[in-house]
Amino acid sequence: MATIPTTGSASLLRGSAALQRDGRSTRPSSAARPLPGRRARSLSVVRASAKDIAFDQASRSALQAGVEKLAAAVGVTLGPR
């Protein structure tokens, strides 16, 4: 499984890159302190499996059933011409 970083990790990387060679931060000191009453954002990781691509008869019949269901719904709304 692959992990996909969210936007929270991008801000984490920018924060570590903001340090200069002598160890000082380029941000003002007030931005480095957390605001009272606020919790730190947790780092979220999305884990997703690969999509299955099937070309067998079962997948074709499932697709045909979906097409027929859609055609039946559209046929009711359009009516006879």
TrEMBL record:
It comes from the Eukaryota. Gene3D superfamilies: GroEL-like equatorial domain (1.10.560.10). Residues 1-43 are annotated as: Disordered. Residues 1-10 have a biased composition (Polar residues). This is Uncharacterized protein.
